[in-house]
Amino acid sequence: MNDFFYDYLDELIPEPVCELNYQQDYELLLAVMLSAQTTDKRVNSVTEILFSKYPDLTKLSTASKEDIMAIIRPIGTYSKKAGNVIAIAKSLLEHGGVVPADREYLESLPGVGRKTANVVLSNLFNVPCIAVDTHVSRVAKRLGIARENDDVLVIEKKLTKKIPPARLNKMHHQILLFGRYYCKARNPECGTCKLRDQCRYYQKMRPKSKTSP
């Protein structure tokens, strides 16, 4: 990774932000947990209803699981996620009612793994870390930063090693959004991408020039 890579992402996505909507710290934690295997857009559509009906942790902790299931049904795996919402709310209330900058505690919560913890730590506490989702993984592999068989933890370590700590949080959002809107799984915008010369995917997929017989 070099200055050209950073400059290009700054050109495309100069002010990257988390696309999950939240007002309170626990709302981000819950939104990221709910975002597993679905889109931010769908999560935002259900959390708008959820957080309006249950506007604080106490109300969430005593909510009916069936009611939460009905609200979040569009995002899938809603039964398990509804139980996680209530359990996380109860746990946070037992720990002062705020989300702590404590990775071990965060990863102990139901439905919260390393990726979710990284998003929370990065956005709420500016801890330099990167969450590897499908978009980040795809970009890292296409650009040769990671190997095809690397798992998310290996990819996270490789990115963390290559990206300066001061740039890590911004780059986390930039790489994710680059993968979501430009380096897409289907029909990526290779024709206008300035990184295509270093892209394994483009080198493999580009039309081969015909040679004269």
How many helices in DSSP terms?
A: 12
- Spell out the helices and strands N to C: HHHHHHHHHHHH
Strand % is under 5%
Shape estimate: elongated
Low-confidence stretches: none
The rounded distance between the terminal residues' Cα atoms is 40 Å
Report the strand count: 0
| Cα gyration radius (Å) | 19 Å
Q: Based on helices, strands and strand pairing, what is the structural class?
A: mainly alpha
Keywords:
single chain, mainly alpha, 213 residues, 12 helices
Task: Describe, in plain words, how this protein is organized in 3D.
This protein has twelve helices and no strands. It is mostly helical. The longest helix is centred in the middle third of the chain and has 17 residues, at 78-94. The termini are far apart.
Brief digest:
With 213 residues, this protein is mainly alpha-helical.
Layout of helices and strands:
Elements: H1 3-12, H2 25-34, H3 40-53, H4 57-61, H5 65-72, H6 78-94, H7 103-108, H8 114-125, H9 134-142, H10 152-162, H11 165-181, H12 200-205
Helix pairs in contact: 1-11, 2-6, 2-8, 5-6, 9-11
